[in-house]
Amino acid sequence: MPEAPLPVAAAPPRTRRPGPPPLVVFGFCWLALMLAVALLADLISPYAYTALDLRNRLSPPIGFGGTWLHPLGTDELGRDVLARLIYSIRTSLLIAFGATIIGAVVGTTLGFLAAHFRGLVEQAVLALVDFSASLPFLILALSVLAFFGNSMVLLVCLLGLHAWERYARIARGLALSAGAQGYAAAVRQLGASPWRLYGRHVLPNIASTLIVSMTLAFPEIILLESGLSFLGLGVQPPETSLGSMVGYGREYLTRAPWILLAPAVTIVLTTLSVSLIGDWLRDRLDPTLR
Amino acid sequence: MLRFLLGRIGRAALTIAMVVTFAFVVLRLSGDPAQIIMGADAPPEAVDAFRTAWGLDQPVWVQYFHYFGAILSGDLGRSMRDGRDALVLVTERIPATLALTLPALLIKIGLGIPAGIYAALHRNSLADRIVMVVAVAGFTVPSFVLGLLLVLVFAVQLGWLPSGGQEGWRHAILPVITLGLGGAAVLARFTRSAMLEVLGQPYIRTASAKGVPWRAVVTRHALPNAAIPTVTIIGFMVGSLIAGAVVVESVFSWPGVGRLLVVAVANRDLAVVQCILLLVATTMVCANLVVDLLYGLLDPRLRSAPRRAGA
Amino acid sequence: MREAAPLLRAEGLVRRYAMRRGAFGRSVEVRAVAGVSLTVERGRTLGLVGESGCGKSTTGRLVLGMEAPDAGSVAFEGKPLPSPGSAAWRAQRARMQMVFQDPLGALDRRLPVGAQIAEPLEIHGIGGKAERAARVEALLGAVGLRADQAMRYPHELSGGQRQRAVLARALATEPALLVCDEPISALDVSIQAQVMNLLVDLQAQFGMGVLFVSHDLRAVRQVSHRVAVMYLGQIVEEGEPDAVLHDPAHPYSRALVSAIPHPGRAGQRMVLQGDPPNPADRPSGCAFHPRCPVASALCAREAPVLKPRPDGRLVACHVAQGEAAPGQGILAKAA
């Protein structure tokens, strides 16, 4: 929220600031934990996520009568919930990171193209932005999945299209104002190629705004992926993601709610953490962003 | 004003045309439409007959115009599951969806906007903090998690309400609450920031410095100006009335458009998917158009400058 | 002996913009530059002076080829300019450079100034890494900055220091032509003189031709070898700076000169009548005639041509050229 509309241009890049509030610190810690889990999944996971333990089906977690054999309990096939959770975190984060980066790259590139060429190119990009705004993303994603079938690559690319128009609008607007402001015009008349102009000057100058947008889009993508997977239309078995764990766990809502609660809590805490960090970064770096 | 109106309508039409084109392109890219629609085990003669009937043996641009013409005349194909007209199939589900989304919209507006205004006017108070925490939670808790938690508490543990199905108004309570709470959180957050931004403007400080009573400052100056950005998000919510409940309908086994869409996607029932896609896009574009026109009424400055919906 | 072609020669430059009036209005064509011809010689400075909106900055951009003129031509070292943005145009930037009004805006606030001064050398592939570093240090010295200030960011420098850094960047490739667009108007008065003196010193050292665009007649006089006065997109008078300042021939120049505060000439200020110039609504005949105190009937009918007087001064005025008797001005007559 733009609570203190500081002029961005006047803000020096390096100044000393007070540390982040406790909730944001918690966000960073949780996110670090999630990253560690995702990176070290193969090392820390007690079992393979597909390993069956038919003698211990639907066994409850510790504290609800369970044993240390399966700290978070098991599902209907005796698969360890903790192991599945660890691999689900890896899948979900991987998809969300990939999709966020794709969206940022596609959107920023299109925004720069619009700002650089103006005219017809700009109109085409703006028409695409209108098109994106006319369809709720979930519907668009579902239609594409219906037409093309499902694959991990398609899913990542598809989610990457989420919020591309936000980056495009930001990149176009900021590139245009950089041209009018002077430094871009000044570099252009030094004889710089468009690559140098946008890569070395405009991009670093708008990077903070783009990074803030990425932190705001990241939890949305996690939610979208988990929503699609929950519906059974995202990540397909035997792969598992946080959303698909909730989706399958739903069958056992009454008998074994732990199957569903563990990934649900993880989703909520992760999106909460990134949102808190994003809000904090926005207030710090770029109060002009809505 | 007429030029403004015509320009907006023209852009709306262009956007719908883009959605139709998108559906056409995706349909063509996804493989042989005859084979897909007729099914893999259809006899070759039937597939050929289908091709001729649909003009699939003609050049792509001719097909494109035929396709466009068919859609304009309301022919959206038939469901491959039971051969019924896709449009009929979809429209008969709309009332069920509206039975969830309309009450939910009332909750969103009735809860979200007052909460946001109150939080902004009492900034940094306990109430503001609570509203913000609930609002952030409402945004970060996915609707299927919230829905399942509600089921777990109110249907499984307490046994007060049914967990799914559509046999009466009691069945609608949990899905409506699930939809309404999430949207109310988004709206409260948005309203609060819009209000805070307006309250920080010089004209508010001027009005209040001139001795205008605070209540009048808020109702006459702050609220109308804060309404401008808030209208956008409400427009988006109105636009998603038809298809804004995909996940929630699945959680509660509610037989609405969203459930139909999920089943159609799972079965690759392309005619139905395409029909829903076009219907949703048209609703959304119309809602955006109305928002644009409202903008013109609320803020004369925006009549000439193009607005980009920030949804 | 005269060289065959001057450094820069612009002939009959015209630049039109479409301007929309109000939200629904029809677009109006505005001629920001309406037929400007000028010449910059090697190692000399042409001062271009006029009030804001008279098209002098647009003229600066046109002669640099940053935008293409709608009519007329620019020849640099005898050859026409390549089209803006092309590879040839980019390569030519090493030979012609610009200094901006707002040095803070013209510098990238994310890079230290030393890196920005080295940038033209990188772009045009001049020298190796060590040579560039040495060249940056030499340039910093030339513009009066310390070598350690190369590591500073633009916001860590004062306004005058920033403009020195911009000058150093512009001179990095030793251009033959420098266009300075209001280079001192964003600076404190106390700094303005320093920067102008620096510009004169640098010209002596680097030998570049300069087009000095300013609304400040005194500043123009201090740095220029010739001065051209612009009004509504046209040059109305051109001559030696001292001659123009002491004996302005065009009534508009006279008004500009009289606006300079001068202790010995109190009471003689000539105040212009009528509306300030609006390029969207150009008067008939001489563009200046509605505000001219000596306008005659001829001035409203026929536009005067810029041509030399017997003393060598170029003036575009019927009265100053003796083609019409001094009138009373249109406003005076109407009143």
From TrEMBL, chain A:
One Gene Ontology biological process: transmembrane transport
Keywords: Cell membrane, Membrane, Transmembrane, Transmembrane helix, Transport
Transmembrane segments annotated in the record for this chain: 23-49, 93-117, 137-164, 202-224, 258-281
Source species, domain of life: Bacteria
Domain ABC transmembrane type-1 intervals: 89-278
One Gene Ontology term, aspect cellular component: plasma membrane
InterPro entries noted in UniProt: BP-dependent_transpt_permease, MetI-like, MetI-like_sf, OppC_N
Localization, UniProt: Cell membrane
Membrane topology: Multi-pass membrane protein
Protein family membership: Belongs to the binding-protein-dependent transport system permease family.
PANTHER family: OLIGOPEPTIDE TRANSPORT SYSTEM PERMEASE PROTEIN APPC, PEPTIDE ABC TRANSPORTER PERMEASE PROTEIN
Name listed for the protein in its UniProt record: Peptide ABC transporter permease
Organism listed in the record: Falsiroseomonas bella
Automatic annotation (TrEMBL), chain B:
Keyword Transmembrane helix attached: yes
Keyword Transmembrane helix found: yes
Domain of life from the UniProt record: Bacteria
GO CC terms of this entry: plasma membrane
Transmembrane segments: 12-31, 98-121, 133-160, 172-190, 230-251, 271-298
Gene Ontology molecular function terms on file: dipeptide transmembrane transporter activity
UniProt keyword terms in alphabetical order: Cell membrane, Membrane, Transmembrane, Transmembrane helix, Transport
Membrane topology: Multi-pass membrane protein
PANTHER family cross-referenced by the UniProt entry: DIPEPTIDE TRANSPORT SYSTEM PERMEASE PROTEIN DPPB-RELATED
Protein name (database record): ABC transporter permease
Organism in which the protein naturally occurs: Falsiroseomonas bella
From TrEMBL, chain C:
Subcellular localization: Cell inner membrane
CDD domains: ABC_NikE_OppD_transporters
Keywords: ATP-binding, Nucleotide-binding, Transport
Keyword ATP-binding among record annotations: yes
PROSITE patterns noted in UniProt: ABC_TRANSPORTER_1, ABC_TRANSPORTER_2
Topology with respect to the bilayer: Peripheral membrane protein
GO cellular component: plasma membrane
Gene Ontology molecular function: ATP binding; ATP hydrolysis activity
Every ABC transporter domain range: 8-257
A Pfam family matched in the record: ABC_tran
GO biological process: peptide transport; transmembrane transport
SUPFAM superfamilies found in the cross-reference section: P-loop containing nucleoside triphosphate hydrolases
Family membership noted in the UniProt record: Belongs to the ABC transporter superfamily.
Protein name in UniProt: Peptide ABC transporter ATP-binding protein
Source organism (scientific name): Falsiroseomonas bella
Species lineage: Bacteria, Pseudomonadati, Pseudomonadota, Alphaproteobacteria, Acetobacterales
